[in-house]
Amino acid sequence: MSTANLTRAETAERSRAIDVLGYRVELDVLGAVDPEVGTFATTTTVEFTARTSTTWLDFLGAGVESVTVNGADVPVDYDGARIALTGLRESNVVIVAARGEYSRSGEGLHRFLDPADGQTYLYTQYEPADARRVFACFEQPDLKAPFTFVVTAPREWEVVSNQQVAERDDTTGGQVVTFAPTLPISTYITAVVAGPYHRVDSEWRGGDVTIPLGVLCRASLAQYLDADTIFEITRQGLEFFTDGFDYPYPFGKYDQVFVPEYNLGAMENPGCVTFTEAYVFRGAATDSQYEGRANTVLHEMAHMWFGDLVTMVWWDDLWLKESFADYMGALANAEATRWTGAWVAFANRRKAWAYLQDQLPTTHPIVADIVDLEAAKLNFDGITYAKGASVLKQLVAYAGRDAFFEGARRYFRAHAFGNTTLTDLLTELSATSGRDLTSWARAWLQTPGVSALSLQRGADGRAAIVQTDPRPHRLGVGRYDFDDTGDLVCVERVEVDLADARTPIDLADAPLVLLNDADLTYAKVRLDDRSLTTVETSLDRLRDPLARGLIWSSLWNATRDSELGATRYVSMAQRFSPAESHLTLLTSVQANAPYAIEHFLPETSRDTARLDWLEHTWRTLWDATPGSGSQLAWARAVAGAAAMDGSRAAGIRSILESGGSVPTGLSLDPDLRWGFWGALAATGHADDADLDGELRRDDTGSGRTAYLRASFSRPDPDVKAKAWESIFHDRTLSNEHLGAIIAGFRAGARHDLVEGYAADYFASIRSVWEERSIEIARRIVVGLFPSEPTLDAADGWLDTNADAPAALRRLVLEQRDHLARDLRAQAFNSRSDVTG
Known about the structure:
The chain contains 27 helices and 28 strands. It is of the alpha+beta class. A hairpin with a 2-residue loop joins strand 12 (165-171) and strand 13 (174-179).
């Protein structure tokens, strides 16, 4: 194993041996504006006490120039990942001068050249362990310390870090910015952002506290930045969390920076939160997109307490921050902003991610067994986020909201600026709820898997709830019937405690019975036959969006599990989607229906289904209310459908051309135009000249990424071969450009053009994992996994690569499982009793 892959055992041993008192990190990025300059100077001064004479600092970079221990220069002992330290005393000062490397993978200090104006932008991204790509450090979350950052940068640049600027001095050709020391924080949430960023300032006042607020983005995106909307959500969140947690925001100021080529949705660096700039909408955006952005803003803000103020000891307890932030983000969105229906998106979209992850062979408990950093990197998944949040929602129903929040307050007061494990949290929640949560934690936090709930109606009128994988639930059961207007409404809701495989309930008859009504628990819900019949004819009559969301989720889970025919699901999607008023539910259905066609239908049925879906999206686009979010959603759905079937190519080209026929009210922003051009390219209806022309129209960072994807989408064997060569051999590609080429390689319905690459894929992935960063390697391993008619190739690789890194095997196992599910579904949907 490479020494870069830190293990839990060795970091625990290091934690017992040292205590870190503080860091001073000096970075010189004056040369960043020159693309030929690949490195930067980084000097770390770290003070710590030691109960050992030897330890190591972590660093991944171009080289270490010098090491000074307690005033004495010592020989550099550096293996490319660790700097050995010897001759330590009880109190120590170590200075490391080194060269870091600018990143193109989104890990460490990422550098981006904006093609719109030629400006250079830098930002850092560290989670879980990439601070060591920028400065020498003890790279583990439980060795917290104050950090003082000093950055030398071009004079005209904005330079931002976790704390406010303490001093700004001129230097030859630039400026030296010294930031005030942070409070004790972990290495992975430190941050530096530098470049000619556009900045908007404001503030939030809460009692006697004033928090400076900033929102930043690239200068070329400034015209699209709706800072006032972001400030509004920020103020609402700070008020909600400060009141709910009874602990003032502790980190002084609150900057939020939208950065290019970001690998994540956002990162909770205290005082310097970074977001993907996909949240800076370059054109029209749906209300669902604004709601999703608000949820992300509030998720990251919740981290200021859950994760930053109190941090897990090791990545086993990643849920202590991510599950809570996911839950609290949705709660704050629903209760503190205009998106009062935020739990609908959570129930339908976030939990879909959890259900998918929890049925893989690599599923794990929420409290996971994370033995090393490679495992930690892959643990940012649907279980840690969405399942954990769902379980917390169940806990609130089980223990009571007041007890839950009081337990959180006690937790913060007891462990502020410290590190914790599961036991620490359960101690506080058990005390405030008056319940022993040990068995609850064992069932929900320490046991993997998802229960499936179904209703059995007996001929005698008696009913029972049956659950697989039994565990304790508190859930609502709703009876829905038609009112005088023909709408489906809830006529009775009861709350039931489940623990066994079968629980009898008293339930009057109704056309629709919805288990887990109000979405209190985490479980897949199956509709009984009568309820499914009602849904199949009358889903559009159900007015409660949360109930509709739960039913859409139930239908999709049943389709994925080969219990509901894919054709039947797509038929319901086509029947009810035009009337679906909740945009999050609509976009989920618009994604799921074509997925079912491509993955779950047998190949012989796909052409007809593709055409039917394309025609459905096309008709509904033209019928949609002009200028509405639904219209925009249907336009995007047309682009997706048209990439698989070229029957509407002429109509799409007309929309794109000057003077062509465009649906009234449709905003043809750059991203939508690229969506249409990508569809035409994937079906062979757009050539180089077309795409070059669109790039001249939108020669921006986003435009160049979209251009790459569209270019490599063309159904030409030479194009696919060039894409393959670039993916595996062009090391200059950024993370985002690599992802675009992979997406282009896989785009369209011409699977025959890519099926011949399976052997090369399996022959290459071990060397990819060894030679590339984990982010780049993950994109290649997941993005290029071949869609074969059998599991033989995947099984053969797994059999002959038992000694492969565990994280790589996990990715292959997961992709193999997705393929196995597809093949089972295709066999199921080939049966005459399913197809009718």
